[in-house]
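Chain and conformation:
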Amino acid sequence: MAVVDILNSKAEKVSQIDLSDVIFNVPVKSSVLHEVVRMQLACRRSGTASVKHRSDVKGSGKKLFRQKGTGRARRGNIKAPLLRGGGVVFGPDPRSYSYKVPKKVRKLALKMALSGKLHENTLVVLDQIELKQIKTREFLKVLSALELKGALIVVDKKDENLELSSRNVPDVKVLRSEGLNVYDILKYRNLVLVESSIENIERRLLA
């Protein structure tokens, strides 16, 4: 088991914690991480691009002029794609881009992402982060003490003071343990785990 120091909000060592090798010491494969991140980003796509086709355009169905004898190209109704204001032929329709990766692969990728942060020494464990009120200045003091510029902070439960104090700080995100995902772990330079959230993460990944 890997032994990691537990710090307080002033960057002082208060104790140590053993991290499970099953979760925090997994060989990292970029292909697995790539597959899961790609799935996450695909699921986030809105897929709302849409156009009006010939049948969707409002207009008369009357033939514009007779088929023969005018010297012009034959025409149907005013909704024809070749005419201004007509329907679009091969435009996009609303669709879902989401797809699923096997649950075992998603769990494995999450373990790899956590292991990668530990191996890169960008994993920080805090005993707690307590803000008495919603103050961005107080939150920045904690980041400054820990010397963190970009961080994903994982907590075990809702903390309104922390979440609201951090929302205007660039390159920082506060996330609850149940929402922990591969994309966010890889996106931020540092991973900060509040000690109480580690138990939830281990329970989720060892189930």
Q: What stands out?
A: The first helix runs from residue 21 to 24. Residues 150 and 171 are 5 Å apart (CA to CA). The radius of gyration is 27 Å. The chain is about 35% helix and 15% strand.
